[in-house]
Amino acid sequence: MATQFDENTVITIFGASGDLSKKKTFPALFGLYREGYLNPTTKIIGYARSKLSNEDLREKVKPFLKKPNGAKDDAKVNEFLSMVSYHAGPYDSDEGYLELKKIIEEFEAEKKVDEPHRLFYLALPPSIFIDVCSKLKENLYTESGIQRVIVEKPFGHDLQSATELQEKLAPLFSEDELFRIDHYLGKEMVKNLLLMRFGNTFLNAAWNKENIQSVQVVFKEPFGTEGRGGYFDSIGIIRDVMQNHLLQVLTLLTMERPVSFDPESVRDEKVKVLKAFSPIDHDDILIGQYGRSVDGSKPSYLDDETVKEDSKCVTFAAIGFKIANERWDGVPIVMRAGKALNEGKVEIRIQFRRVASGMFTDIPNNELVIRIQPNEAIYLKCNAKTPGLANENQTTELDLTYSERYKNYWIPEAYESLIRDALLGDHSNFVRDDELDVSWKLFTPLLNYLEGPDGPQPKIYPYGCRSPDGLVEFLADHGYTFSKPGSYQWPVTTPKM
Ligand code: NDP
Ligand code: BG6
Description:
The chain is of the alpha/beta class and 497 residues long. It is 33% helix and 19% strand. It folds into two domains: 4-152, Rossmann fold (3-Layer(aba) Sandwich); 186-379 and 431-477, Dihydrodipicolinate Reductase, domain 2. The strands form two sheets. A nine-stranded mixed beta sheet has the order 14-13-12-11-7-10-9-8-15, with helices on both faces. A six-stranded parallel beta sheet has the order 3-2-1-4-5-6, with helices on both faces. Helix 5 (129-140) links the parallel strand 4 and strand 5 (146-151). The protein is globular and about 80 Å long. The structure holds NADPH dihydro-nicotinamide-adenine-dinucleotide phosphate and 6-O-phosphono-beta-D-glucopyranose.
């Protein structure tokens, strides 16, 4: 059963008129409210420059407030919206903040709040993070009570800009008060990694170079950058999802056992393993950019008028990693991510070494697949006797498909889970400053090389293909053994994202 906490919390969403707020932040707050994890006494204030009324904002977000199955619950939606108001004001001058201060203080006085609990959510472009944080600190910070600030990615563009950003933020808010959101850390299967790895003797025992042949973290999206090309052109797939989301996944997958679930113990281990990553070898990558689909119905990346006509922006990358520690030394690790591919999925593939020959001549490797999305699942491809008289092997699976096993469970959306953590002050699933520093140190030399004058030309791959040419060979070179065509059959069709 849901627990209630802190009454009369004030949540202010900066950038409330924007896309992220509408699609993620408000729906997440609604989800928490619907499930009983947001106290009905909470006051939610949207703040942005656009001149909107309370009703305008409510109407804007209303279509996105749904139950997990997509159904509407008008009564709950209306209750929730009655907690929401809007205030228009600038980001870079005091006037709007002073008005906001008055609104918040009036609410807290009326409710007789001694120790304010204020959460500020910055759903804003990074160019104004610092302005807003400075104004917040000046005008809305109280010495007593709790103030927390959630900031959205990107946290910098490279090591230097991330360091500068951090140097400006640090004097304003302490690490305890800052919550750098990486929404992948709020996904159910990502949160499951620690428990699965360290809560199962058999997995824990096999999680090392003696047993594991290769590791892959895979991100595929079936759509391109349509409409976001201008933004994406200076970002590319490596900054967009690899340096942050996928590296977080890889870190949780490869770190040592923390002493407890305590946030700092977990984050200490993450930083430690990141420091053991070898520098990325510029020759150990495969990069691509999507062209038109084979039938010509889908545009190429360069067809987007908002991108440079000779852009070398990378929309697909496969990167080989090495971790120089006792557990992982010599195990090839591949992170691959691409837009405009044949399907949408995010998964982890751990392929185990072959069993000794002799008894067997040609028996497939075990493979553990953790599907983060869509349709969360964990399956272990293993070998078993085909039922019947013959003594033949068949590759089958130990299967945990969440929609089957956990039919009646509410699986929170990433933002629901993370906003709740921030309200409770739990930093476990947020990015710490030193983590950010090490991750940028790892990726910046590669980005400088790719974006520098001698940077290679990405291979063009057709929109909608499974992977760019060369990926099969790249994976094979990194220890991945492909199953023989037709040797493994899954009886159920996996829903497409
Ligand atoms: P697949 O056979 O789809 O893929 C295995 C791996 O080989 C993937 O990494 C895939 O890459 C790669 N690969 C294969 N052929 C190529 C190629 N031509 N080019 C590039 N890469 C290639 O997955 P599984 O064997 O794990 O499972 C088979 C099917 O069964 C899947 O649809 C899976 O979802 C389903 N299944 C579902 C379960 C569940 O829902 N609980 C349980 C077990 C199986 P890429 O990913 O890029 O295609
Ligand atoms: C965002 C990226 O951070 O993550 C997007 O900017 C990407 O380009 C998205 O599509 C993927 O998130 P999810 O939760 O849809 O897998």
